[in-house]
Amino acid sequence: MDVTSLYQQLLKPSDALLSAITRLDGDIIILGVGGKMGPALAKLAKEAIDTLGLKKDVIGVARFSEPGLQNELERHGIKTYSTDLLDDAQLQKLPNVKNVLYLAGMKFGTTGKEALTWAMNSYLPGRVAEKFKDSRIVAFSTGNVYPLMPVTSGGANENQVTAPIGEYAQSCLGRERIFQYFSVKNNTPILIYRLNYANDVTYGVLLDIAKAVKEQRPIDLRMGYVNVIWQGEANEFAIQSLHHCTVPSTILNITGPEVVSVKSIAGEFGSLFHTKPSFINEEQSTALLSNASKSFRLFGPSKVSLKQMIEVIAEWVKTGGKTLDKPTHFQEREGKF
Prior knowledge:
By secondary structure, this protein is of the alpha/beta class.
């Protein structure tokens, strides 16, 4: 099987997702569909609905600054709205939909645009929570709200006291607090979806490391350990999470099952590329790590292994597959994005 076919196979909706969609009442709206995960999430939801022969709409909302994306989603049968969510008049014109997947936010470019970051990440959630107060909402957040954890700890679980480093992570905690407030105020079922390090062939920590090894650039080991999860699986869990929204809101970590050494990942890519990785700086005793065991109790074990992710990404890089050119900056320990 060639790499494109293998990649497409890894994006197919699982039986668990089909079951979740069958039991889900109402349409699905994805706010911030134009980001890294949004297009694949929208297509996955639509494919699952079509496979089941159901009459549900998938609606994608974004500014659609990327040329061609809106037309591409429309071709897949996804209804789209070109909307600046920060413009309240535009926000209020959106249809009221039962199921909301909230992906809107700002990370890269925060430094120098702190006010816009807080507006996107902390102010907008309040406007969205009021607009969709009669919906159920899965609000994407990040593991960056946690402190750096000892590598030996297994990562932060959902009970870990938050300690965000830098304004991006602080504004993300602000987003969570606003959704938590409106969940109680309006009796809106909400799930806070703390994701760190989704990976696809087009972006992610694994791709960052793969490209560095292939191009023989040194890899920074300051953040020497990471969690990774296949983007397709993270998208499946997001849709399934609509069944787990609660009042008050609940928190769910989403990532892979293991703490992985950056050095060992680089070594795997080195073997596949027949080149020796090089490194700078030293591994630290702490890293940004999450424990997602709660999610595996809800959704079952991870179905795409680290080995599979590495192999498909390596083949994608070897064959010159298209990537988003959006580095994750996973090495950042000071919270400056």
